[in-house]
Design goal:
It contains 3 helices and 3 strands. The protein is mainly alpha-helical. It has one domain. It has a 3-stranded mixed beta sheet with strand order 2-1-3, covered by helices on one side.
Length: 90
Amino acid sequence: MHVLDTALLPLPKPQLKAVLKRSWSAASPAQRQALEVGYISLANFQDRVGSKPISLTLSHDAADTAIAWMKRTSKDRALLSRSLLLSNKP
């Protein structure tokens, strides 16, 4: 798994989140599952990563960097999950 810069997204991250949420409400159950995966996967896109993706594979020479980014993406993934659950309650 890698962390990529938000500049690679087709829209700014907040705008893309809003589009995915709106799409979810009009989607079939199968489509909703795919949209949920996409929404939560936005955690892998972070600001200030730069043009080179950051590997989250633990290696001896880059473990500290990988762990720092894992913490950041895990926190973002939790926030995205909570946001999705709260916004999609009936």
